[in-house]
Amino acid sequence: MELARVLADSHSADWKVREGAATELGKMLPSEQVIQRLSELLGDDDMAVELEATEVLARFGGRAGLVAILGELGRRVDDPDSDYIAYRLQELQTNDGLPILQNSRKVMDQSPSHEVSEGINQIEQLFGYLAPKDK
Q: Which residues of the chain fall short of a pLDDT of 50?
């Protein structure tokens, strides 16, 4: 699928089209433009779109994708809807074996922004017990 068309679909008024576009964008990673658009979809009005963008960025976005998710969590620390993003990360860690916590800790070692640090703190509180830190 052509990038321009998928990007246009990601701006559709129909949430289902935006959700499908997030999936298709994941097939186009790595790309800064794609990471940027998926990052924007983390703040979509529809939870299904947010969660699809979260999963795509976590699975295929590498460090940049994870940083985008963590930053979104940190920016939305007082938004109860952002809990669903954190829960999706927990599912990916628990059910799919993605090293979300381990990779987040590596990001923390690199002195990230306040928002990213706050996002890391949120997931540590939620499911840090799944991968205890080395002493």
A: none
